[in-house]
Amino acid sequence: MTRNVVESVGLVFFGKMSASISHELKNVLAIINENAGLTEDLIALAGKGRTLDVSRIKSLAAKVKDQVKRGDDIVKTMNKFAHSVDREKASIIPIEFLDLVAALSRRLASTKGFELDVFCDKGLPEVITSPFPLENLLWLFIERAISGAGGGRKLVLFAEESGGKVRLGLRRSPSQLGIADQGFPDEREQCLAEAVGGEIGIDSEKGEIFFLLSKASG
Amino acid sequence: MRVLLVDDEEEFVVTLTERLGLRGLDADYATSAEDALAKAEKNSYDVAVLDMRMPKMGGLAIRNALKGRQPDMKFLFLTGYGSEEDFNLVVSQDGDSAYLVKPIDITTLIAKIKEVSDRKGGRDD
After folding, report:
1. Which residues of chain A make contact with B102, given a CB cutoff of 8 A?
2. Rounded distance, CA A157 to CA A164, Å?
3. What is the dihedral sign for C-alpha B42, B46, B48, B49?
4. Does B18 touch chain A (CB under 8 A)?
């Protein structure tokens, strides 16, 4: 039962993130296309006698390079995400893990008017866990925070030490705006928490949803 | 012809505006719904070219707000998705509009702008 839910919810999550990544790449290609097009336009005008501004052409070439860098970063994120299904259990570095989840989710959060930041305690140890279900669980936390949100427009993915465990989660900023706790955890959240192997919790007054992971094992 | 381009990717919309200007269109741009609505308060546009997916307010919602201010304005939608879902949304909510997938060809864009501009009326005109 749990495995079926985890697999079907995971497929939806994978599809949603893939669609979002493809949208971002389309935007990168669209900008490169316009910069290349404008370069052609200016060269064509020069052919008709208008002075060619070399500094403008250099600037357009630099913009293309910037977008290639942006596209490369998106592809690297996509690649890390795709490989997160390779192993059922793996060692993760909390800050790198949260950065990946933020990179995947930032555009979707932005379309709903939310900023997404990452905060991580210094010196947190690596944690052995199930990467893909944990990414999925953190995304469900983001969805929950967005769907129940009133005025708050900032979400923070965090990782911190808590009683000998690592506490990973999401908080709204400012925290007193709270977080929707209706039906928490729902079937998807519960099944994913079981698959990851940790303790799930919510503090609606503090505006936090979190997940406790053992340092030594997940 | 006066055209308003609305897209949150500033570099895209600024460059496209310049390219349309080089081809003789009077083009203006906005990078958010608020910016677009503010410009529509001050200026009159024949066609608005709207990105479907933007922060806070998407293209269809901006279209409704602009239509309330300028009932004769025509619309063209852009998207990075190219999904059937987006296409159906546009057709179901505004059968007189057109839809293009990024990256776009400037000649096709201008042809579509002229095509929607030439259409008379609209579903809620």
Report:
1. 26-27, 29-30, 33
2. 20
3. negative
4. yes
CB contact under 8 A, A30 and B104: yes
Collapsed DSSP state (helix, strand, coil) of residue B99: strand
The complex scores an ipTM of 0.88
Cα distances from A190 to residues A8, A86, B24, in angstroms, run 14, 23, 59
pLDDT by residue for chain A (218 residues), tens only, comes to 678 888 999 999 999 999 999 989 999 999 999 999 999 999 999 999 999 999 999 999 999 999 999 999 999 999 999 999 999 999 999 999 999 999 999 988 988 888 999 999 998 989 999 999 999 999 999 999 888 766 557 999 999 998 888 999 999 877 666 677 888 999 999 999 999 988 899 988 788 999 998 875 44
Q: Say if residue A135 is exposed, middle or buried (CB neighbours under 10 Å; 0-12, 13-18, 19+).
A: buried
**pTM summary value:** 0.88
Q: Residue B30: beta bridge partners? A: B6
Nearest to A108 by CA among A146, A79, A151: A146
Entry field: residues in chain B: 125
How many other C-beta atoms lie within 10 A of the C-beta of residue A75?
Answer: 13
Helices A187-196, A131-147: inter-axial angle, 10-degree rounding: 150
